[in-house]
C-alpha cells in the first residue's frame, strides 16, 4: 500500500522553489491535465501525504516514503496536512514525525500555523513532554514563530487537565521562549482561563499578576466578556476607567451583554445612552444583545420591533440578529412567528445558517417531533446550508429514540459525501442504534467509511460492534476492523480525574 501511494505521488511532483516560505499555488504543475485553479489536485496531495503518515511504521519508514514521492513539501501543503491530522484525530506521534522530518530540511522553516497546529495535536493527547521539546527546538531555530497565539494554544490544552496553578506555571515558562514576554502574553493567559477555567480564576490571576504587566484595552475586554455577574463586570469597568484606559465599542457591548443576560435591561439601555454621549454608535452586536435580553424577560414581540428600530438608526440586522429574535419565539413556542421571521430573512437576501435551523431542531427534539425534523433537514440541504455538529446531534439522537435506521443512515451518508459534522460524536449514537437493531452489516460499512476518512471510531463503539460480531461468528470482519483500528495506534487518553502530581509534565525545567 505504501509503495502504491508513493508511486502515485511521484507523478504529482513539483519543481523545487528557492524560497523560505513558498506558497504551493506558486509551484508549477507538471501535469498538463491539471488546472492550477482546481483545489482537487491539492486535496489529492494532502490525502496522499496524510495516508503515508498514517501508515508509517517508524520515523525511518516515514522519511523514506516521503522522499520517494518526489513531491515538494511547501509550507502551504504542510499546513494543510497538519490541519488534516488535527481534525482526523490521528496518531499524534506520527504527525510529530512528519513535523520533525520537514523541520530538519536545510533552510526550511515551519509557519506559525504549522507550529500551533502541531502543538494543539500534542496537547489534545496530553503529550506535554513533546510540546516543550518542540518549543525548545523552535526557539533555537526561529523563536519569532512562537507567538502569543502559540502560548494560548499550549495553555489551553494544559488548562483542560491541570490546575490553575499548573497553568500559570506553564505560562511563566514561556518567558524564556517568546521573543517578547509582554501584555499580549498576559492577555493570552487570561483568555485561556476565561475559556477553560472560570471567570473567578481569571479575576484572581489578574489581580495577582497585574503589577508585572501594563493592562490595556484588550485585557479588560477579555475580562469583561465572560462575566455572568453584573457586579463583577462593573468592578472591572471602574478599574479600567481608574487606569485611564478608554473603553471602545467592544467594552460597552460586553457590559451590555452582561446586563441583558442578567435581565437588567434598564442598565443596558443606560450603557447605550452613554455610548451615544461619547459618540460611539451602537452596532449590530449591541442590538443583538438587547434582543436576547428582551427574550429572557418574556418580550419577544418587543424584540422583533428592535429589528425595525435598528434600521431607523442606520444599523441593518444580520443573520445573528434575526436568529436572536427567532430564538425568542422558539423559546415561547410560537413557531409560526419563528417561521415567518426566517422567511423574512430569506426575502431580504440573507441565507439562514446552521444556527437558524438548530433553533427549530431543538424545539422538535424537545417535542419528539420526527416528521418536522426530517422535513426541516430536507429544507436545509435543499437550501445548500450544511448542518453543523449540533444539527447532526439533534437529528441522530431523535432518530435513535424513534429507531429510524434509514433516516440515520441517510444523515450519515450525507455527512460522508459532503463532509459536515463530527464523525466521532455522531458515530457513537449511530453505532448504538445499528447494534440495538442488529444491523451489523450497516455498522461495519459505516465503520469502514469513517476509517477511510481518517477518523478513528471510539473504543467503546468498536468494542460493542466486536462483541456482536463475535456472537455472529464474523471472525474475518473482526480481524479486518481490528487492523483498521490499529492504524490509529493505541489509546492515549489520560484518566478523567487528574491531580496536580499527574499534571507535572507540562512544566519541565527549560
From TrEMBL:
Name of protein: Pentatricopeptide repeat-containing protein
Pfam families assigned: PPR, PPR_2
Domain of life: Eukaryota
InterPro entries: Mito_RNA_Proc_CCM1, PPR_rpt, TPR-like_helical_dom_sf
Organism: Salix suchowensis
PPR repeat ranges, renumbered to this chain: 248-282, 283-317, 318-352, 353-387, 388-422
Family note: Belongs to the PPR family. P subfamily.
Keyword tags: Repeat
Amino acid at each position: 500500500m505504501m509503495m502504491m501511494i508513493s508511486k502515485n505521488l511521484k507523478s504529482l511532483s513539483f519543481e523545487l522553489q528557492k524560497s523560505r516560505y513558498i506558497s504551493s499555488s506558486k509551484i508549477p504543475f507538471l501535469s498538463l491535465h491539471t488546472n492550477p485553479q482546481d483545489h482537487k489536485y491539492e486535496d489529492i496531495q494532502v490525502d496522499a501525504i496524510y495516508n503515508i503518515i498514517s501508515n508509517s511504521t517508524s520515523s525511518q519508514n516515514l522519511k523514506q516514503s516521503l522522499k520517494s514521492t518526489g513531491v515538494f513539501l511547501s509550507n502551504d501543503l504542510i499546513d494543510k496536512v497538519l490541519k488534516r491530522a488535527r481534525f482526523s484525530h490521528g496518531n499524534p506521534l506520527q504527525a510529530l514525525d512528519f513535523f520533525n522530518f520537514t523541520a530538519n530540511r536545510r533552510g526550511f522553516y515551519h509557519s506559525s500555523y504549522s507550529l500551533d497546529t502541531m502543538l494543539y495535536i500534542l496537547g489534545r493527547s496530553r503529550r506535554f513532554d513533546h510540546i516543550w521539546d518542540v518549543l525548545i527546538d523552535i526557539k533555537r531555530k526561529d523563536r519569532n514563530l512562537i507567538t502569543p497565539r502559540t502560548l494560548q494554544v499550549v495553555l489551553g490544552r494544559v488548562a483542560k487537565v491541570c490546575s490553575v496553578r499548573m497553568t500559570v506555571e506553564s505560562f511563566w515558562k514561556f518567558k524564556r521562549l517568546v521573543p517578547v514576554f509582554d501584555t499580549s502574553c498576559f492577555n493570552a493567559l487570561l483568555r485561556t482561563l476565561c475559556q477553560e477555567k472560570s471567570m473567578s480564576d481569571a479575576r484572581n490571576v489578574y489581580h495577582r499578576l497585574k503589577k508585572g504587566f501594563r493592562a490595556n484595552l484588550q485585557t479588560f475586554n477579555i475580562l469583561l466578556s465572560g462575566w455572568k455577574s453584573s457586579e463583577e463586570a462593573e468592578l472591572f469597568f471602574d478599574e479600567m476607567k481608574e487606569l485611564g484606559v478608554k473603553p471602545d465599542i467592544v467594552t460597552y457591548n460586553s457590559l451590555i451583554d452582561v446586563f441583558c443576560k442578567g435581565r437588567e435591561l434598564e442598565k443596558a439601555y443606560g450603557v447605550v445612552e452613554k455610548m451615544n454621549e461619547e459618540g460611539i454608535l451602537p452596532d449590530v452586536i449591541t442590538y443583538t444583545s438587547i434582543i436576547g435580553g428582551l427574550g429572557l424577560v418574556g418580550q419577544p414581540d418587543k424584540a422583533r420591533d428592535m429589528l425595525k428600530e435598528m434600521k431607523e438608526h442606520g444599523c441593518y440586522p444580520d443573520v445573528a440578529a434575526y436568529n436572536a429574535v427567532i430564538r425568542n419565539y422558539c423559546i415561547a413556542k410560537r413557531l409560526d412567528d419563528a417561521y415567518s421571521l426566517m422567511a423574512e430573512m430569506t426575502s431580504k437576501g440573507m441565507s439562514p445558517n446552521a444556527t437558524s435551523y438548530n433553533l427549530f431542531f431543538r424545539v422538535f427534539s424537545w417535542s419528539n417531533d420526527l416528521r418536522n425534523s426530517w422535513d426541516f433537514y430536507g429544507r436545509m440541504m435543499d437550501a445548500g446550508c450544511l448542518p453543523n455538529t449540533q444539527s447532526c446531534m439533534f437529528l441522530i439522537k431523535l432518530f435513535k429514540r424513534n429507531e429510524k435506521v434509514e433516516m440515520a443512515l441517510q444523515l450519515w451518508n450525507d455527512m460522508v459525501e459532503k463532509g459536515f459534522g463530527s464523525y466521532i460524536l455522531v458515530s457513537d449514537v449511530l453505532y448504538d442504534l445499528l447494534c440495538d437493531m442488529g444491523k451489523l452489516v450497516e455498522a461495519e460499512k459505516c465503520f469502514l467509511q469513517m476509517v477511510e476518512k481518517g477518523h478513528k471510531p471510539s473504543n467503546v463503539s468498536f468494542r460493542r460492534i466486536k462483541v456482536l460480531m463475535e456472537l455472529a461468528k464474523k471472525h474475518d470482519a473482526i480481524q479486518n476492523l481490528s487492523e483498521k483500528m490499529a492504524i490509529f495506534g493505541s489509546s492515549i487518553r489520560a484518566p478523567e480525574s487528574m491531580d496536580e502530581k499527574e499534571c507535572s509534565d507540562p512544566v519541565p525545567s527549560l
